[in-house]
Amino acid sequence: MTRWQRVQQAALGVLLACVLVTVAQGQTVRFAPEADYGPFIYQNQQGQIAGLSLEFLEQISRNAGLTLLTLEPQPLAKIMQAVAAGDVDVVSSLRPTPERAKYLGFTAPYVQIPAVVVGRYDSSQRLDLGALGEAQVAVGEGYAVEAFVRQAYPQIQWQTVPSDSVGLKQLLNGAVDAVVMDIASVNFIASQEGMQGLLIGAPVGFDYPLSMAYRKEDQALGEALEQGLAAIDQVQRLQILQRWMPDDGVPRQEQRGLSLETLGLLTLVLAVLLGALALWHRQRRQVGM
User: Fold this and answer.
1) Residue 204 near residue 131, CB atoms below 8 Å
2) In CATH, which superfamily holds the domain spanning 3-110+210-286?
3) Helix 3-24 crosses helix 219-230 at what angle (to 10 degrees)?
């Protein structure tokens, strides 16, 4: 391919992206929020939808000229059924998986969070999935981490729950021995619901790079979301992250290797790098490199 042909190809790519974004501008998109996935997306005590992901999506929508139609909050499993039926345009706070990619497209991640083991504070056992033997451990039904832990730790007696909040309640009443969930949700739910007696254990080796997901066939919407996300500068990103993921108060079990404090700091740094990388890829595609 000659240099002139590459320039033409790059120009056509930029033109197509502009056309797709123009098509999407003014579009009303049906957003399906989860009912109980704080601090990312949840229904607060006043019945309003709130969370880190909503704040990102609202800013993306303003940047892209989209209008959000927020649907009734539901558990993730029901939302995914609605997406497959064509009744939803956008879902927030999703980790891309091969199964979801069959009918969903994904933006670049806007945050990345490690999943951890959570136990009771009075537990004398090391809170590490490799050390829990055949313990009963709760995990969110349909959550991306579920398939990973089932395959990686088949000896565990896995118990699915509709939400992380339900899992923590079962943990505290003794119905399960531990819960697997992301560290931001542990701290948020414990704070919101006044839960005492929790203890954060080891990371499970699985991170949540959370993206906005959209109907795969709607390329114009996907392009608009991607550009709207890329337009959020790094100062705005860090402000949103720090607003919704402040220092937590749930104690941690001593673990070998990196501390969870260090992991939390790395998460914030990684979120900034992800945003910069997404913008770089975007600009690189537009110049045909």
Assistant:
1) no
2) Periplasmic binding protein-like II (3.40.190.10)
3) 100
Domain definitions of the chain by residue range: 3-110+210-286, 113-207
Q: Return the number of other C-beta atoms located less than 10 Å from residue 73's C-beta.
A: 19
201-228: string of b/e by CB count within 10 Å (b at 16+)? Answer: bbbbebbbbbbbbbbbebbbbbbbbbbb
What burial letters (b/e) apply to 253-285, b meaning 16+ CB within 10 Å? bebeeeebeebbeebbebbeebbeebbeebeee
Using a 10 angstrom Cβ sphere, with 0-12 exposed, 13-18 middle and 19 or more buried, the burial of residue 154 is exposed
User: In sequence order, what are the residues at sequence separation of 6 or more whose Cβ sits closer than 8 angstroms to the Cβ of residue 194?
Assistant: none
Round to whole Å and give the CA distance between 38 and 163. 10
What is the dotted CATH code of the domain comprising 113-207? 3.40.190.10
In tens digits, the chain (289 residues) has pLDDT values of 565 545 445 444 444 444 444 445 568 999 999 998 999 999 998 999 999 999 999 999 999 999 999 999 999 989 999 998 999 999 999 999 999 999 999 999 999 999 999 999 998 889 999 999 999 999 999 898 999 999 999 999 999 999 999 999 999 999 999 999 999 999 999 999 999 999 999 999 999 999 999 999 999 999 999 999 999 999 999 999 988 987 656 888 875 444 444 455 455 556 556 655 655 555 555 555 4
